Structure prediction request, 571 residues.
Amino acid sequence: MRQIVRVTERVQETPSTVTLRFDHAGAAAPGQFVMLWLPGDDELPMSLSWVGDRKGVTVKAMGDTSRRILDIPVGTRLGVRGPYGTKFDLSRQRVLLVGGGSGTAVLAPAAEAALAQGAHVTAALGATTANELLFEDRLRSAGAKIAVATDDGTVGHHGFVTELADRLLHEATFDVVWTCGPEKMMRKVADSGRSVGAPVVFSVERHMKCALGMCDACSLGPFHVCVDGPVFPAEQIARLDEFGRFKRDPSGRLVAA
Amino acid sequence: MAAVEANLAGIRLRNPFLLASGIWGESGESLRGAYEAGAGGVVTKSIGAVPRDGYPNPTVETFESWGMLNAMGLPNPGIVEYPQEVARARAAGVPVIGSVFAGDADGFADVGRRMESTGVLALELNLSCPHAKGLGSEVGSDPGEVERVVRAVVRAVKIPVLAKLTPNTADVVALGLAAERGGAAGVSAINTLRAMSIDVTLRRPVLANGLGGLSGAAVKPVGLAVVWQLFDALTVPIVGIGGIRTVDDSIAYALAGARAVEVGTAVAFGGVGVFGELSRGLPGRLDELGFRSWEDAVGAAHAGRSRPTSSVPS
Prediction:
């Protein structure tokens, strides 16, 4: 069922991302998403960047509706369906998370939950430039070790976060790697993980309509991202032809990713 | 153990459970997945001449376990690109029925012919989507138009043609008879019931399209009544659709007169594993009820009745 909530807080996280918080009773685990409806507009899948009763989503402008959601004021009513989808397994002790841009949104609550259970978490965060790094302070204050990479070299490693992740994986032992970002980036992380024997877990994004495993809009190979994902073991999907190359558009056509 | 093979207009199915159109049918791998989960066959998403995005979200609303509302708006990749998806399913041995839609008889004949060339075993004509302007039930609620559309498609193809009928009409039997006159090899019923949901705090319809179609357990009694009436009036086989989630639901449809059944909303509520539960559970349940086969149960609730009671009670 859908709940109607009001935005209680709006935080400009970076120049291009905004977090919206709202009160929503309903169990949610890190990794899961909700269908967020801006009445009179569209309804979009959004990973939860905050779980618990005061939930939150962190939005980046991807299309017209997400651009409009970025600008809504505190007090705006939203429809929320869910939470839906698979979760991160929080039982691992040594965790590396690799976040590309706004992909860090879904990783942050997982890292906090793991840290609260006594895990050691290292976060490799990538962004185009220094002020686009998402949740660096949040993760540091939760107790994660932070390493950053920027495309323009304004801070940290000058280059891709995948290079940073590969170096970290060769320097230390990790029980699991969680990654979210562009699919080509995640595939590189999967390659690095495989080379050192560390299991890699993806959080995947697809166009969604029903979020109930029915309409096929989010099909990815034999999987439906809304119910079989969005959190997948990398070995399930990294080698699918479609992954990193194609997505389905709203009509169901395969188009270049 | 009771035999559960079904014969639908000459198509042999390993069991009577078909994936309903609109569910999972956008990709060939999904069609294959439904078959591997236990379905006897699959019906594709309704495919039109050109790609169509469908309506914006929200496109669905769920009501606990008793029903679901949807207005997807016939999203589909179009008949030019869809053959690759059918090919993927056929390569895995899946019996595929191709669902098509168009705005008039010529359009149906054209997209039906192109769907036939993908190698599907039969066509199902979508004459019943309850919320698409100029399409679906807007074409399919007029018996004369149903007859014209079916006849045009039957002339254009060699494979059996099923007409999927709308329950959003005063007289569904008249639509069934029209399909039969047009040469349909069978009819499928029912599509969803036109319905809507309104959020009281927002003072607005929930679905982006306003109107949608109701499916799930709530519509099972409606579907049974329609199949019952069609069985009395028609000679062609009937595919029963509407709220089937359990083996007994499917047997009730057989007793009303369905030779095969389609399952859709149950996939959304319980996952595609529902096909495994249905196909594994059917033989034993038919045994318990004293049927030697699924075919034995078809229409059996009509036995011993002195005359048809297909009219609406006054």
